Amino acid sequence: MKPICETDNRGDKWWHINGFYHREDGPAYESSSGAKEWWINGKLHREGGPAYEAANGDKEWYINGKLHREDGPAIEYFDGDKEWYYYDKRISCEDNEEFLRIIKLIIFS
Questions:
Q1: Cα dist. 30→8, 19, 27, 33 in Å?
Q2: pLDDT given for residue 107 in this prediction
Q3: Strands 13-17 and 20-21: what pairing?
Q4: 17 pLDDT exceeds 80?
């Protein structure tokens, strides 16, 4: 089944199937302000890139509706701040090197 695209009076566009945001070949939501969101079956989801890109430059990585990224921070704020998440669990760390060490401990414990 192919997603239906609708546009509102502000110019925001969204793609959906059976009432759920869904699009496999691009963002399922594009705001007129420039924000983009990738959704699959009603859950924020994107492999290989952020599932949410704000107009101000903030980026968030999601897999199946959970904040998650294995090769870097799952949230990158436009001001340079970062937050690391592993399957929706926040990992407190200072940099990517520390994050990767913690993830190895989680995986192999």
A1: 11, 17, 7, 8
A2: 80
A3: antiparallel
A4: yes
